[in-house]
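Listing S7. Sequence submitted for prediction.
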Amino acid sequence: MKNEHISQFLHDRIDANDFPSAVYLVAEKGEIVFQDALGFAVVEPERIEAKLDTIYDLASLTKPLMTGLLAAASIEKSVLKLDDKVEELLPFAGPLTNRQSTVQDLLTHTSGYPAWRPFYALPDAPVFDPEDYGLASESNGRIRHFVLDDICRTTKEPNPKVVYSDLNFILLGFLIEVMNDWDLRSIFHESVFVRLGLTNSLAVETKKYSCAASERGNEYERRTCVDYGYVDASATAPLNSFFRKYVIWGEVHDGNAYFMGGVAGHAGLFSTAGEVFRIAQQFLANFTTLLKPETCELFRTNFTPGTNEHRSFAFQLASSPESTAGAKMSPESFGHLGFTGTSLWIDPVKERVFILLTNRTHNHALPFVNINSVRRRFHDLAIDHLEKNR
């Protein structure tokens, strides 16, 4: 079922050192049409070829596939409403910031929160002990309370535009936990993982050799922390001791998700292309088994018309300027990217799903390659060949 033109294009990008591996899947009306695996999922410390069932760190695809999906289910059940004031529903230690955000603000990145904040590098952050790691660790409760408290104290822009921010979905993840009185990983496991019959998503601690590897030691985040003044470039301890020195492989790449036990509202989900496809089907009205068909309208609805970016419920829309959808998808198409090199786009008009999983952060010196042009070309090629098959 591989497509020679798509596979050759991605093979050429591997040869150009954009990324060491790629797995793609293209589906239409619930059926997989094209898929292939290319390159090496792991180059160091050993070489392991990519396969169709290679597990990738999805990074920010966690936002729609886990947190967004659970938020939609919560809205269906009237556990949450789009106009709920988020901070009023959450426990926090300090006073509210200047402007309260709604659930819709978080889902559309219009809350006014800054794009990023390295909670692990803040001066008063709890000490992180890698020997006491995980959601069930003794220190994790203190860490998560600290993160929640810090977000609720963070100053927001008074008249926000769309600013894509991890803080929005970290906070949304906390909100889902509070409203369900359960941790996010367990909610996802029971509500999605079990019901869809997934086997290679979420926790991967025991499946390292089935995973694509990522960066050697958080060097990107360390340099970013230095650039923003969170870490002294000349310091060796204690802050720099947080950054991993080994190849990140089989554990989450994102520093805040790692700090918070491996899974948070913005990152931490791992999956294969095939299982991403099964989750992606839940956003299409004619194929979802977890949501009501009418709920799927939320994902194609523009909640931010007239602003700098078109955002729907947890997704970016193809009509957004400079989106990675390419030139041939329906304007109502919605998608998301992951920092590690992953992407998902869904066309609800044609009922098509486009998945491209790469590990661009692996075995590559900084700076990492911006692969948005690759994503656009992949989508355009896939659509050309889907149309030829009609």
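Caption to Listing S7: primary sequence and predicted structure tokens for the chain studied. The CA atoms of residues 2 and 12 lie 16 Å apart. The longest strand covers residues 31-42.
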